[in-house]
Amino acid sequence: SSSACTVCPFSPPPQPQIIQNFKGTVPRYACQSIAGKYSQNETYAQNLNLVLSDLISNSSTTWFYNSTAGEGLNKVYALFYCRGDIGSDDCHDCVQGTISWARKWCPSYKEAIVWYEQCTLRYANRLIFSKEEEDPWDFAFSPINVTDPNSLSQALFETMGGLISDAAYTTSNGFSTGIASYASTKRVYCIVQCSPDILGSPCYNCLTEARSKVRSGGPKAAYILLPSCRLMYDFDPLFSIANSPPPQENGKSSYILFKVALPVAVPIFFLCGMSIGYCLKINKMKQRRKGSAAHQR
After folding, report:
1. Which residue ranges run through the membrane (predicted)?
2. Is residue 289 one of the residues assigned to a domain?
3. Cβ-based neighbour number of residue 11 at 10 Å
4. Are 159 and 113 part of one and the same domain?
């Protein structure tokens, strides 16, 4: 069964982190004790250093990257994925930071996960690429609850549902953002993300599982962190909405509405253009016929 954890699976799950805002807080992590440990003079340690250095080197040029080093029992698999809306410098800094935290919190563990606000880091002594994994998971939430938790839950369920489908089946990077409306006027910023190597139904399943873990009671912010995906919402801005339309009262994301409207609008403009062109052509032909008739007289 699923359980939130820090050192898994033998130590008890921790209390959830209470947050005012995830930005600037200490990252969450999971050290997998079932994978075993290594000593610093082992080949595994050398291979781990190689792949982590490779991840840092590539984090300035891409938002998702995986790497391996070694063979057999000493082979190391590692990956990172950054949020799809951050710059390359922020991605690099986040990956570098999570690696530092992993070395501090999970020294000698062969498998570890570190979640931070802008990225996720994973490494293991087993294949973790293109696999949807939901355990171990962790979470953080705001200590402040809204006055109408049912309305918030309904708005989040509708908006997150659209974002989950978008991330899984429409995007190329598994990342989607949107805005839910609470009490008609208040924005709730929503982010969902999958590891880009599990797009499609695995991504959909992971994010749906993450959504099911949102705590009841209406916390003003929640962050659900799984190995292969993450789901976050907050009343404080999680991303820029400088050019976004106002939130919809039914809880639908303005982001989703915009993406739906665009493909519909393009064919309409195209058909209108064809109709205008056709009308102009007919009018021109009539003018020519009138001119020809006058000449014959």
Report:
1. 256-280
2. no
3. 11
4. no
Task: List, as one string, the DSSP characters of the chain.
Answer: ---B-SEETTSPPPPPEE-S-STTSPPEEEEEGGG-B--TTSHHHHHHHHHHHHHHHHTTT-SEEEEEE--GGG-EEEEEEE-TTS-HHHHHHHHHHHHHHHHHHSTTBS-EEEE-SSEEEEEESS--TT-----SBEEEE-SPBPS-HHHHHHHHHHHHHHHHHHHHHT-SSSEEEEEEEETTTEEEEEEEEE-GGGTTHHHHHHHHHHHHTSPTT-BSEEEEE-SSEEEEEESS-SS--TTPPPPPTTS--HHHHHHHHHHHHHHHHHHHHHHHHHHHHHHHHHHHHHHHHHHH-
Task: For residues 61 and 120, state if they share a domain.
Answer: yes
Owner of token pair 């919402």: 233
Q: What is the pLDDT of residue 240?
A: 74
Dump pLDDT digits (tens) for 92-148. Answer: 999 999 999 999 999 999 999 999 989 999 999 999 999 999 999 999 889 899 999
**pLDDT tens digits for range 156-178:** 999 999 999 999 999 999 999 99
Residue labelled with tokens 């931070």 = 116
Domain range for residue 68?
36-129
Domain end residue (candidates: 129, 153, 170): 129
pLDDT for 289 beyond 60:
no
Q: Is the pLDDT higher at 251 or at 82?
A: 82
The tokens 């080093």 sit on which residue? Answer: 69
